Amino acid sequence: MKHFGILMQKEWRENIRNYKIYWIPAIFILLGITEPAVNYFLPQILEASGGLPEGAVFEIPTPTPEQILMAVLQQFQTIGMAVLILAYMATIAGERKSGTATLLYVRPLSFSAYFLSKWVVAAAISLASVWLGFFSGYYYTRLFFGEVEIIKLLQMIGFYSFWVLLILTIVLAASAALPNGGLAAAAAFALYVLLQLADGLLGANWSVSPVKIPQYAATWLTGNPDLPSLWGAVGITVVIILVLFGFGSWISRKNKAKTKV
Amino acid sequence: MNIVEVERLTKRYGQENAAEELSFALEEGTATALIGPNGAGKTTTLSMLADLLSPTSGKVTMAKGLTIGFLPQYPQFFPWLTALEFTEMAAKLSGVETKKARLQATRTLEFVGLGTALTKKTGAFSGGMKQRLGLAQAIVHQPKLLLLDEPISALDPTGRREIMDLLKSLQQDTTILYSTHILNDAEEMTDQLLFMKDGRLIEQGSLSEVRDRHANPRIRIRFQNYAQAVEFAEGQAWGSEVKENSIFLPVQKSGPTMQQVLQVLASKKQDVLGVEFQTASLEEIFLKVVAGK
Predict the structure, then answer these.
(1) Cα separation, A228 vs B69, whole angstroms
(2) pLDDT, tens digit, for every residue of B100-151?
(3) What secondary structure does DSSP assign to A178-198, as a single string?
(4) Which of A28, A100, B20, B228 is packed most tightly, with the most Cβ within 10 A?
């Protein structure tokens, strides 16, 4: 437990001093604002980019605020998750490859503290970024498109957070297992795409699936998702995350011989 | 008392043996020099002792509760941490009490000559400073065993002198195992020598034991020119070797002794430039042992 505190301080300093604590939230805030802003200013944007042909009549239906927030979630699902994967792909593999890990590994290090300290700091920054992104999106959505109950938004963010944590845990475990950050990112992306593909093809038969969490989370905006399915999916996600904690700690220790000496 | 015993330690990578059947012991409070050409397996051996690598076979037995400090050949630091932050973290991770860690880190950094760079980011450190910081993180928790991989090779002559003196001052209460290919340094601080080549230990023992086995003592007489040397060589019964203007007389139990040589020289009224007793330097011994096996 003592090591956990020491290593967390190190991770915290790292994330501040390599500016991750600033640029990751900045990207999510930008993504969150873009969706309502682009939709609101669409007519002006079309006008500025050359406009429509003379005489063309083009009715653009005004989206509902709920649709805008769902679009924000879609942005997070594609660009946002990619940003998190790229930001944290080298967390452990990079330390081994550069050799900075060596001076940690030669000490009586607790590898579960090592893995968890990285996870906690990365999770804090990722969740804060996602939440800030949604709140900024929510602010402009209300401004431009109308009211959405805050409780609906909070329910969506709350459940979506489990998904974010799952992706992050997969990236860190891949980083612990694989020789470099690029491979870790590739593995995480591959898993991400495969899971969604599998869910798209076979998902109809299985409602209790972690991959469905984003979809269920978005459902909170317009109604209520099927609660047993949602909680079942969350339960499975938590179990997977816990299993990955164990795997990540174990594989970090196993791979300590691969650090550059 | 031996605080480390290594028995038939082997590390295999595929078909290649990076370390093969190494057996040696480290006695408490002694300094051991691990000497060998590049690729001999020195780093692999140290990594196994530091528990970074697990051996393919054989075993390392360490005294109970032995604390270890390790300095890699090219220590790498988190560039965004300051020297003090890093050393303090190293101390805490090695079990130094939180309250004492900062003070101990500060003192250690001052000890290695980084007292003015405490709050400087390690990313801005020069090679020599990194080497000193590497030493600081290895000794900050006052380990009983210090494993140093080429601790001074990367330093300039002044720095090398300073670090050698630091290491010698640590020697009183620390057992040191260090690898080097600078044999002058090894000669200066060593109780035990381990010669490695191609993953194997090809010679080991105390400095005097190794010297006795390979020192090849001889008396060298320098003449004005080659002809004089040859003439002298032919005029006496000892086995001798002539090189340029000098003659080398191997010293064995049966002689010759310096006194006998001087008597002969005096009786011949032969003019010489110099007479001296020579033994092989560690470097010569090393080259001979490495070439021989």
Answers:
(1) 54
(2) 999 999 999 999 999 999 999 999 999 999 999 999 999 999 999 999 999 9
(3) SSSHHHHHHHHHHHHHHHHHH
(4) A28
> Distance (Å) from the C-alpha of residue A120 to the closest C-alpha of chain B?
18
Tell me how close the Cα of A10 comes to any Cα of chain B, in angstroms: 8
Please state, in angstroms and rounded to a whole number, the distance separating the CA atoms of residues A19 and A14.
Answer: 8
| ipTM of the shown complex | 0.90
Instruction: Work out the burial of residue B187: count CB atoms within 10 Å of its CB; fewer than 13 is exposed, 13-18 middle, 19 or more buried.
Output: middle
Whole-angstrom distance, CA of residue A94 vs CA of residue A18: 14
Each residue of A132-158: pLDDT tens digit? 999 999 999 999 999 999 999 999 999
The answer to whether residues A179 and A97 touch, using CB atoms and an 8 Å cutoff, is yes
**Nearest residue of A to residue B121 by CA position?**
A17
**Residue A248, CA distances (Å) to A143, A219, A244, B104, B155 in order:** 44, 33, 6, 33, 38
Task: Say whether B52 and A105 touch across the interface (CB within 8 A).
Answer: yes
Would you list the domain boundaries of chain A? 2-258
Structural domains of chain B, ranges and CATH numbers in brackets? 2-213 (3.40.50.300), 215-292 (3.30.70)
B197 vs B204: CA distance, rounded Å: 12
Angle, helices A81-88/A111-145, rounded to nearest 10 degrees: 150
Instruction: Tell me which chain B residues have a C-beta less than 8 angstroms from the C-beta of A2.
Output: 92, 98
